[in-house]
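From the pipeline queue, job 12 of 40. The input is one protein chain; the requested action is below.

Action: predict structure.
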Amino acid sequence: MSSEPSNMSEASNHFLELLQDLTSDVRAGRKRKITSPIGPYLRAARWFPLAIDPFAVLEDVLYEGMEAEFAGLQGNRTSSQSEEDVNSSQKKSYIMQYNELVKLVPTFSSIISEFEKAPSAMDNFIHALSSAANDARSDDTGSLTREGLTYMLKNPESDQFNPSLLKHHGKIARGWNHPQTARLLCPMRMLSTFDADSHYRSFMEKVKEGKIKITAAKLPTFLYDESMFDPAKKSQGCLRGYYLKRVHFSYHRQLNATLQLAQVFRHIFTGPSSALNPNARRGTKTPKGRIHGMTSPLPRAIAYAAVQAYFQLSSVNIWCQEIEDLDLVDLYDRVVDMFEGNTNSKWVEETLQHWKSEAPGLQQRRHTRAKTDTGSRVDDDDSEDDMDGFFDSEEHSPDAGNGGNDGSTGDGVPTRTDSNVDDMNGINFSLHSCLL
């Protein structure tokens, strides 16, 4: 792999190698290798959706960030969002995301400045990174689709889906079309209604008919340890625990909601071989988390696992932002804000510690290529938001300096501007701290 350039001459040589790599691969139609001069930048781009934002368009992030860092440096933006369409708040978000991305590769800014000499090559560079980011999310989604069914069962060796749910059935058989996946997607506060319905398909049909609205404001059961749930203490059991309490209906067959979420996280960040056994070391590849120097689960990585898990439980075949009435961006932002909007919360401290214990593979340190490497409606109040009063049960209120209602977090980072996302959801990156 290339070493980090130590002076301007070396930086120029590094850029020429990168330029040659870009043009040769485009001309030959080859897939770019992670060990090539562009490799470190591709690796950073693949980390972007996992630990920064899976819904941000990296092309827009790069163009806005580079324009802010190097005034006058522009390429030919091809995304659907023109420069005129990017409002001030969104632009700030893009710039913050860009700043986090460039921290992953020390030579990033110096390479970008060199593109003034070859602006057309900059477009190739941005396209390559955007493709890498999209491929990373797509690879995780595809891998989980193939292997994720096993993670939905408490004991894969003995438990079964009833009715049968196999890979060849396709995802159309999941979601609200199957009682076990439906139960995990059911809002936690409506689970007693779901369980009390002896003809459980009545609840499922009402969801499919739109008589019961499922939105991100109603946090799904799979985010919770059911045995810990307390309606008066909304944060209790959320994103924690292992075993979903066994229920007496045969179609519930011992599903484990929060274990499933932990398994999805481990599948992505510590490798598929560790999904069912967190201490397993059968994998031959270095896990993504360790490659990027992540020694404990990051809030945004947990949120990424949550939206991937929701997609896997759903009946949707193609990755999308909206699944029926639920916006995955909204769900992602809510999970992120549980942590970043309440940094002084005891729940945050305890939950992150719990997740650290759930991913021991991140602490099995080996040589990594982290940042220094440059190479009829059911009775339910639809207006209620499960994030309202989420931390009310704690003795001390959350940090008033974070997650305020002024459209930014305490660090002045603008909130996401999507109209389906509450103002409470902000961006407050702490990614770089785990990579130093």
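Job complete. The radius of gyration is 22 Å.
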